[in-house]
Amino acid sequence: VQLQASGGGLVQRGGSLRLSCAASGRTFSGYSVAWFRQALGKERDLVATSTSIGVSLYHVNSVKGRFTISRDNAKNTVYLQMNSLKPEDTAVYYCAARDFTSSSWTSWGQGTQVTVSS
Asked: Binning pLDDT at 50, 70 and 90, where does residue 111 land?
């Protein structure tokens, strides 16, 4: 499956953005999809996962209650709604996918830059 991430941009502290990850090539209803982020000079961190059975998981404590991952299987799209953004959320955000047979993330989007100004 091929992934295309979009929706990044420049926003002020406290603002909101919605990232989209559109899949093509095959339906991804059977895939888990995740959002990662990588700040400049830091490692890539797993932020949130939407499993193939629709369970949402958040892996960074600082985003809990502010970020929401959701999916629309009919549109082959996963979203990351980000509210109350903080400067420390500034990063390149990537989406990734894996099917139920894989233990690693096998498909990656190209990344979208999110910049939060103070």
From this structure: very high
DSSP 57: E
Distance CA 81, CA 69 (A): 6
Would you say residue 103 has pLDDT above 90? Answer: no
Q: For the chain, how long is the longest CA-to-CA vector?
A: 43
The model's pLDDT over 29-55, given as tens digits with 9 standing for 90+, comes to 889 999 999 999 999 999 999 998 889
Place of tokens 């549109």: 75
Cα–Cα nearest to 37, from 21, 53, 54: 21
The three-point CA angle 77-79-81 to 5° equals 165
Question: Tokens in use for 50?
Answer: 């939407």
- Distant-in-sequence, close-in-space partners of 41: CB < 8 Å, separation ≥ 6: none
How far apart are the C-alpha atoms of 53 and 101, rounded to whole Å? 14
